[in-house]
Amino acid sequence: MRTSLIAGVALIGWLGSPLPRVASAQDVFQDPRGRFSIDLPPGFTLSSEQLDRIYVFQIPDARLFVSVAPGTRDLDRLWRLALDDFTGAGVPPPPAEAVTDLEVNGNPARMAWYGFDIGDGRAKVSYTVLLGAVVLQDGGMGVVCFSMLNDRAADQWGDRLRQAFRTIRVAGAPVISAI
Predict the structure, then answer these.
(1) What is the pLDDT of residues 21-68, one digit of tens each?
(2) Count of domains in the chain?
(3) How far apart are CA 168 and CA 92, in angstroms?
């Protein structure tokens, strides 16, 4: 079974101790290499950056993982890569009815928002997942977002994280539409 660095970081981040705070993010985060920008929900800070392609933003109740896939110009391919990363680490794939194709700032995108449970009949924990992929055509790359939230965090942060996904764009470009 294939596991990836991104999924490993995600699961370690959820199951292990909090990641050290490396730097602060502003409301608009621009990749230091000038590849993309994303408008973050208030209070989210950059807690980790790895290999110039994986960024972890957090608040006490939630984390948002953003990864860059240079050279990826095909949405179906990017989506398969994202699914392989996270299902390989034990996160179940989204049901078909939870997946939506959309346009994010003029770029092809796909997003899933879905729930799943972990545990046996005695103890069960429910999670909600945001998995999103957008191909930045002008940037010649893909960007993937992932967040796994408990019920309380999903109620508080879910709409804001989905909104943040809809602001991904080539660095320096304005948000065209983030409905």
Answers:
(1) 333 334 899 999 999 999 999 999 899 888 778 999 999 889 999 999
(2) 1
(3) 25
Amino acid of residue 133: A
d(C-alpha 103, C-alpha 20), whole Å: 34
Q: Which residues pair with 157 in a beta bridge?
A: none
Note whether residue 177 is domain-resident.
no
Dump pLDDT digits (tens) for 9-31.
444 343 333 333 333 334 899 99
Find the angle CA(47)-CA(33)-CA(138) to the nearest 5 degrees. Answer: 120
Flag whether 95 is in a domain. yes
- 3-state secondary structure string, 131-156? EEEEEECCCCEEEEEEEEEEHHHHHH
* pLDDT tens profile 76-126: 999 999 999 888 778 899 999 999 999 999 999 999 999 998 887 788 889
- Alpha-carbon Rg of the chain, whole angstroms? 15
Rounded CA gap, 60 and 100, in Å?
Answer: 29
Separation of alpha carbons 49 and 51, rounded Å: 7
A 10 A CB-CB count for 22 gives 12
Question: Which CATH number belongs to the domain containing residue 97 in this structure?
Answer: 3.40.1000.10
